[in-house]
Design brief:
The complex is a heterotrimer of chains A (255), B (331) and C (289).
Chain A (H helix, E strand, L loop, with lengths): L1 H13 L1 E12 L2 E12 L3 E5 L6 H9 L6 E6 L2 E2 L5 H7 L1 E3 L12 H9 L6 H14 L15 H13 L5 E5 L7 H18 L2 E5 L3 H7 L2 E6 L2 E6 L1 H6 L1 H9 L5
Parallel strand pairs in A: 3-8, 3-9, 6-7, 7-8
Antiparallel strand pairs in A: 1-2, 1-4, 4-5, 9-10
Helix pairs in contact in A: 4-5, 4-6, 5-6, 7-8
Chain B lengths: L9 H20 L2 H26 L8 H18 L3 H25 L4 H20 L10 E2 L17 H23 L2 H11 L1 H5 L5 H27 L1 E2 L1 H4 L2 H14 L5 H24 L6 H16 L4 H8 L6
Antiparallel strand pairs in B: 1-2
Helix pairs in contact in B: 2-6, 2-9, 2-11, 2-12, 3-4, 3-9, 4-9, 6-9, 7-9, 11-12, 12-13
Chain C lengths: L2 H32 L6 H19 L3 H24 L7 H23 L14 E4 L2 E4 H23 L1 H11 L1 H7 L3 H23 L9 H16 L4 H21 L5 H15 L10
The chains are: A alpha/beta (255), B mainly alpha (331), C mainly alpha (289).
């Protein structure tokens, strides 16, 4: 019996793209993230939710390389990435967006995405072609000559996604990408992400508040509260757990 | 900042070609005085272009760029006077020394996260350090100065950069054209795009896999090296070097005036700025002489006021505004 | 060398350093609160110094007596500068601001050059050559007066920022710009006031500085740089830090002048600056945030 379980565990482990084991982070007395562990299989969409102050952003920043965990390990495709610099993490295959969008405002949409594409394609023509392809996937190709500062917020968000995608990531990290968008725009983003996941097998990790998007996209959800993981599983099941309901009603519920 | 990196339209290139043709013919059209003014304009355009690589492309404000001019000047001059090495060879040493200095400043600044105003102050401090250091550097004449033998103007010796103003004019013209071409090529390369990304938003650039430290270093080293070439020209044109003049902060300010007024970022900016600034200041100088108010400092007050006006009214510089007006840029 | 020479040099350096510190205090206030990189700082001091010289030569008023009036004049100048020209630049990119002040600095330096010419000027008071003897140590009277004056002014300033409502409002702005706006403080006016106060420090320092050094129009940039070195060394936003930094620099210069050639003394200040920027950029006495 024990042998069979081990074999299954081994098979499962081979498909894990991102593995987070027991990471923790303390900021001068405040334990922001407390012994969090989870695994994201290749090709899945994983969401991390929780009330404000739950530690989602800190967790995100540790995976993205902005800050280093105090303890624990983070591995991508079996190789450790915790404590590495953000640019190294991107080169290893993680693309990310920012909570407050940061496109290169003085440059055109196409140039923004080209710069992402140049990571894997030093030849400028190849980079430009790839940028076109990516812009088509996010439905921005018509605005490719526009200067980024002239774009609306939803367009800027899609631009950021395109830019990160252009680096050919194995894992895409999205930091509250749905925030500040109307339902129609949220749906558009959801369909783009769904298509990317189904069409190219892109693995996605989302930090989200917008439940509509979480329910539509995520295969598995991790709930954080006061820095600790309080539930993990398929979205429907997790949202019904008493601990989760209480954490949201107890704190400010965000729709 | 929209037009900063916008390409120039076909019209602009045509104008540039005409300008180049006129400049090539200048020694026949212009008198001695005008020729020296043009040499100054071209020098400032070139050196502003070199500075622009650090600021306009990589976003690092250097207020101590005179250090590269000085290092380049002294290197080539000393090699020529003491070791009989021609300036075109000495230039290689000048570039190497200035590039190393740039690398040092860049390393110290970027490794330790020194940016913005602190970086600017660091560059000022280094330039001052060089000024005082060379003031005490006996082997190159210290504060008494270092001199090149002034040769006979009748013969033009291009290899040793000894000759009449016309020869120097063409050398400077070639340098400026080459500098412009280099900047244009750099901007359109992967490095150029990465520089723009770093300049726009360094953290976002990092998230795209760009090693920002490496690319900032490249900008600093190229900028320093290019500036050193101007230093070589400076040494052989003026034939004397005094640390008080060569490394002085007013030299550093002079270098940035062209690009700031013309517009940082686009290769056309420093050129437009140099023409406008020098042209206007010479005009002003002549007016002042005519009304009898030609005092030391008047020209600098004019520079200061010009800088003030541009920064307040046309913060992007004159070139973007002009380009938009005359439809000289692609958009 | 006999020990007393070291003491003389050290005490002399400390006293001069205090005046440097007062000048830098002005910058600390300006940069710490308004976040403006005042590249015209040394030039403002040059203005104060020239005013002191002119008033001394025409009206015979002692520079020490001029400390308060000149502080007042520079206050008005600073207030006008911030309110009139600099305030709109708060939201502009950083380098725009620098260049604005560089332009102002160039204009001031060269206007002074046009008016006064390039030659050095100084002030000869009745006590210019007096000195006090404390045991084996001999100290210039001018330096003692300047040092004491600085300490008095600094004390008044500290008290103002600690206890006066206006002072506290200014500190609030520095700590939290948006918070200050929310609470209803007129931030732009407070910025102008702060710049004025910083300029007043410079004015006071300038009128004491004429007792210690000669003034030329080219003085400005060197002292701007010195002020930045001091503020960075001592710690941004820390007023005691500015004074400490000033004393440190004064001491470094004095000792360097003793052991090496006097003209090389500023190289040590730069060395110190580079070290501080690299190793402890928040400065020696940085404010805890």
């Amino acid at each position: 019996m024990a042998g069979r379980e081990t074999a299954i565990e081994q098979v499962v482990e081979m498909n894990e793209l991102l593995e987070v084991q027991g990471i923790g982070k303390r900021f001068r007395g405040l334990l922001a993230v407390d012994d969090v562990s989870f695994r994201i299989p290749q090709g899945s969409i994983f969401a991390v939710i929780g009330p404000n102050g739950a530690g989602k952003t800190t967790l995100f920043n540790m995976i993205a390389g902005v800050i280093a965990p105090d303890r624990g390990r983070i591995s991508l495709d079996g190789a450790r990435i915790d404590g590495r610099r953000p640019d190294e993490i991107c080169r290893r295959g993680i693309g990310r967006t920012f909570q407050l969008v940061r496109p290169f405002l003085g440059l055109s949409v196409e140039d923004n995405v080209m710069i992402g594409a140049m990571l894997q394609r030093p030849d400028l023509r190849a980079a430009r072609r790839h940028a076109h392809d990516v812009l088509e996937r996010v439905d921005l190709v018509g605005k490719r000559a526009q200067i980024a500062s002239g774009l609306t917020l939803p367009d800027r968000k899609r631009l950021e996604v395109a830019r990160a995608l252009a680096t050919d990531p194995k894992l895409l990290l999205l930091d509250e990408v749905m925030a500040g968008m109307r339902p129609a725009e949220t749906d558009r983003m959801v369909s783009i992400l769904t298509e990317l996941n189904r069409g190219t097998g892109l693995t996605i990790l989302l930090i989200e508040h917008v439940m509509r998007a979480v329910m539509a996209l995520a295969g598995r959800v991790l709930v954080l509260h006061h820095g600790a993981a309080i539930a993990e599983g398929p979205p429907g099941a997790v949202m019904r757990e008493p601990a989760v309901v209480q954490s949201y009603l107890g704190a400010e519920a965000i729709a | 900042m929209q037009f900063v990196f916008a390409g120039a339209s076909g019209r602009a290139w045509v104008l540039l070609a005409i300008l180049l043709a006129v400049l090539c013919a200048a020694p026949w059209l212009a008198g001695d005085y005008l020729l020296t003014v043009l040499i100054t304009i071209l020098y400032l355009a070139y050196v502003g272009q070199a500075w622009n690589v650090m600021m306009g492309f990589a976003g690092q404000l250097s207020l101590g760029h005179a250090i590269y001019v000085g290092l380049g000047a002294y290197a080539a001059a000393v090699l020529y006077v003491n070791f009989d090495i021609a300036p075109w060879i000495g230039m290689l040493a000048a570039i190497a020394i200035a590039a190393a200095c740039g690398a040092l400043i860049g390393y110290l600044a970027f490794r330790f996260g020194v940016g913005g105003v602190y970086f600017a102050i660091l560059t000022i401090a280094f330039a001052e350090f060089a000024r005082i250091g060379f003031d005490h550097f006996g082997w190159v004449g210290a504060s008494a100065g270092f001199f090149l033998p002034v040769a006979n103007y009748a013969r033009n010796d291009l290899w040793n950069l000894r000759g009449n103003p016309t020869m120097f004019y063409y050398v400077m013209l070639a340098l400026t054209a080459a500098g412009f071409a280099l900047c244009h090529a750099l901007l359109r390369s992967r490095t150029g795009y990465y520089w723009q990304a770093i300049r726009e938003d360094e953290e976002a650039a990092r998230s795209l896999g760009i090693n920002t430290f490496r690319y900032k270093m490249i900008a600093v080293v190229i900028s320093g090296g290019m500036t050193a070439v101007a230093g070589v020209f400076f040494a052989f044109y003026y034939n004397n070097l005094f640390p008080e003049q060569v490394f002085h902060i007013s030299r550093s300010i002079e270098i940035i005036l062209g690009p700031i007024i013309g517009g940082i970022g686009a290769p056309f900016g420093p050129i437009v700025g140099a023409f406008l600034l020098t042209g206007a200041s010479e005009l002003m100088q002549n007016v002042l002489i005519a009304i009898g108010f030609d005092v030391p400092g008047a020209k600098q007050v004019f520079y200061g006021v010009a800088l003030l006006l541009v920064v307040i009214v046309l913060p992007g510089g004159v070139w973007p505004w002009l380009a938009a007006r005359l439809r000289l840029s692609k958009s | 060398m006999p020990a007393s020479i070291y003491f003389n040099v050290i005490i002399s350096g400390v006293l001069t350093g205090l005046v440097y510190g007062l000048m830098a205090l002005g910058l600390s206030v300006i940069f710490g609160v308004v976040r403006v990189v005042n590249f015209a700082h040394g030039e403002m001091m040059a203005i104060a110094m020239y005013l002191a010289i002119v008033l001394f030569n025409t009206l015979g008023v002692d520079p020490l007596v001029l400390v308060i009036p000149l502080a007042g004049v520079l206050f008005v100048l600073g207030y006008a500068l911030q309110a009139g020209i600099i305030n709109p630049f708060i939201s502009r990119p950083e380098y725009s601001q620098f260049i604005l002040l560089v332009a102002i600095a160039i204009i001031i330096t060269n206007v002074l050059l046009i008016i006064f010419g390039p030659d050095a000027r100084s002030v000869q008071t009745s006590y210019s050559f007096d000195s006090f003897a404390i045991g084996p140590v001999i100290v210039d009277a001018t330096k003692v007066y300047a040092g004491v004056g600085t300490i008095l002014i600094a004390a008044v300033l500290f008290a103002f920022f600690r206890f006066a409502p206006l002072g506290k409002a200014i500190r609030a702005c520095a700590d939290n710009y948006t918070g200050a706006l929310v609470v209803g403080l007129d931030v732009k006016r407070l910025y102008a006031l702060t710049f004025g106060i910083g300029a007043a420090c410079v004015g006071a320092a300038g009128s004491m500085m004429v007792l210690l050094i000669d003034v030329t129009p080219a003085l400005g940039p060197a002292y701007t740089l010195l002020a930045f070195i001091i503020v960075i060394t001592g710690g941004l936003g820390s007023m005691p830090g500015a004074l400490l930094g000033g004393v440190l620099i004064g001491l470094t210069e004095a000792l360097a002048g003793l052991f090496f050639t006097p003209s090389a003394k500023s190289m040590f200040s730069f060395g110190l600056l580079v070290l501080v920027l690299l190793l402890r950029p928040q400065g020696l006495l940085a404010r805890k945030t």
